[in-house]
Amino acid sequence: MSVRLIIDPIDFVQNAGIRHGRIPVIDLVRLHDLLFDKEGELIYQISGRLDKNAKPGLQLEVKGKIHLNCQRCLEKLVYEIDLKTFLLLAKNEVELQQVDEDDTIDAILATPELDVINLIEDEVILGLSISSRHADGECNSLKLKSATDNPAGKKQSANPFAVLATLKKTH
Asked: In the sheet where 18-24 sits, what is the strand order?
């Protein structure tokens, strides 16, 4: 397990802190149920800065590849993560609720001991699709099924209802 990075986010912003590193996917335990395997790593950078209204926030960038389960064929799906987000720091629950009313702003509560690895894991999970799957025609099981449906390599009719049309004419 990699070393946890704990920061005081307000202090981190005031000191214009920057941290970067690598996180093995195996360390992202809450993500495991969504994964095909636990291979790979994520590269991150987090920096503290003020937004255009001079409010403190964290700029987070995460890149890497993870292997998800394709929901169509249940095989490995290589998923590229390229996450860039700015998280406004709310000093208390009231401020967080006010910020949450604006859907264009992402905010988190500025707790004195913020675990950066958990924050990164949260953002990765939130960025995933509800139903991850290969692009159309890329699933292995669908390719195999179509090959077994037509083992002799016979040319299939362009219109599946053409057979029905011929039956209708003959009867």
From this structure: 18-24, 41-50, 56-69, 76-90, 106-109
The whole-angstrom separation of Cα 8 and Cα 49 is 13
101 falls within a domain? yes
Domain containing residue 17:
6-150
Question: In whole angstroms, what is the distance from residue 141 CA to residue 73 CA?
Answer: 6
Assigned domain for 65 exists:
yes
Q: What is the pLDDT of residues 100-128, one digit of tens each?
A: 888 888 999 999 999 999 999 999 999 99
* Residues near 32 by beta carbon (within 8 Å), at least 6 away in sequence: 38
Q: What is the pTM of this model?
A: 0.77
Distance CA 48, CA 13 (A): 4
Total number of domains in the chain? 1
Q: Has residue 168 been placed in a domain?
A: no
